[in-house]
Amino acid sequence: MNLRDTINQDVKEAMKAKNAKKRDALRLLTAAFKQIEVDERKELTDEDVIKIIQTQIKRRNDAASQYKDANRDDLMQIELDEISYYEPYLPAQLSDDELCDTITKIVAELGATTMKDMGKVMGAANKALAGKADGKRISECVKKTLTL
Description:
Layout: H1 3-16, H2 20-40, H3 46-69, H4 73-86, H5 96-110, H6 118-128, H7 135-146
Helix pairs in contact: 1-2, 2-4, 3-4, 5-6, 5-7, 6-7
């Protein structure tokens, strides 16, 4: 069973359990899958599904921070709840130490020494760490590693 089938099964289980919040959050996710399939005319792989989930989580985080700035804690909580429904479908995230160790190895392999090499390092790191860490964490660690 692929990741998308698992999500569809969880939508059905949420419906049976009458968990409207989870059902609606997962339906938004499946709608995003269908939109990409229609727009790009392709069948989604598990890697594509993970990228879409990460994008949706990033959007929810951005919205939650905007709601927090506007003192709309009720709407912020809705966004955070949706994130909590999406996160179990992602691969296990690397700890900060594991992330920095991996990036240090990538920097050594590429021979990067200055911030001018950041783009090259980011490209390799994003490929190697796809799904295991978000871009913001990767970027912070690359900057830290290159400025040492």
